[in-house]
Amino acid sequence: MAGGSALGTLAIAPITDAEQVPQINVSPRSPVTAEDIPVKKFSFQTVHEQAVDAEKIGDYVKSLGVRKAAILHDANQYGTSGALFTYDYFKKIGIDVVLREKYQKGDRDLTPILQEGRQKGAEALIVYGTLPTPATIAKNLRTMGWNIPMVGPVGMGSPRMMKLAGEAANGVVFTSALSLKNPSPTEKHLYDLFKKKYGEEKRPNYFTALGYDAGALFIQALKMTNGSHDPLKIRDALENIKGFDGTIGVYNMSPADHTGLSKDSLHLFKIVEGKWTQLD
């Protein structure tokens, strides 16, 4: 199993492929688009492809009746590729992206860019990045008095959002691979393990769930091969896993899809009065 950044995953993949050793990683594989990097034969992952996250965001924004949107994204790999997927999907579903701009992590004031988005008639703001900058953007919106939906990906769903943005975090929507309202049996099992070890208030985070599923998929592959130590048989078993209920979602692997997760396994959360409220 491999963790770390997407760049690390991409760097390891040619090595594991050459050595014919299956790897199950917990970071997205695509730096720009999925089409740019074909599925590696021995590489699998438990994290949703960013294209799937973009679809979940797009469907929600479309349901609000939004016709024009602005996209702000972190200049790093995660933000850049996520913004591109989001832009492509918005175009597909008929939402006009009137502004797409990058920012640097740690930027303290995005007001000038936001003003441009408002002038161009954006009705929703998509922020593709991880904290702390999305919290800054939420505060900028509040200061400007620009009351439009702010929506982000899984990477934006952190309790730190409320700590950093304060009241400005209220109304922010983000996707999540974990469900608080209706956890799957496997997800509930992980929650119960955490409660037993860390106490009632402690909940497993996204990265814990990703690692848990990586281990669970490996065990499932071993079961399918009757405990074989043959890397080729384990690889083939991983690629043929169907309907496997993990904490992140239901995995349906195939030769063309080594993630096996659909947008149906993602959930939507909204921050309401300083608390996460699940919308679906």
Characterize the structure shown:
The protein is an alpha/beta fold. The protein has two domains: 6-48 and 185-262, 3-Layer(aba) Sandwich (Rossmann fold); 51-176, Rossmann fold, CATH 3.40.50.2300. It is 41% helix and 17% strand. It has helices spanning 6-19, 50-63, 77-93, 111-119, 133-144, 160-165, 185-198, 206-224, 231-239, and strands spanning 23-25, 43-45, 68-74, 96-103, 124-128, 150-152, 173-176, 244-245, 250-251, 267-272, 275-278. A hairpin with a 2-residue loop joins strand 10 (267-272) and strand 11. Helix 2 packs across helix 3 (77-93) and helix 8 (206-224) packs across helix 9. The mean pLDDT is 91.
The beta-strand count equals 11
The oligomerization state is single chain
Mean pLDDT: 91
Please, how many helices?
Answer: 9
| Count of domains | 2
- Helix content estimate: 40-55%
Which blocks of ≥5 consecutive residues have pLDDT under 50?
none
> How would you classify the helix and strand content by structural class?
alpha/beta
Intertermini distance: 32 Å
Indicate the radius of gyration in whole angstroms. Answer: 19 Å
Helix/strand order = HEEHEHEHEHEHEHHHEEEE
Reported for the largest beta sheet, the result is: 7 strands, mixed
CATH superfamily membership of the largest domain: Response regulator
Query: What is the CATH domain class of the largest domain?
Result: Alpha Beta
Sheet-strand content, in percent, reads: 15-25%
Overall morphology: globular
Name given to the CATH architecture of the largest domain: 3-Layer(aba) Sandwich
Strand arrangement in the largest pleated sheet: 4-3-5-6-7-10-11
Under CATH, the topology of the largest domain is which?
Rossmann fold
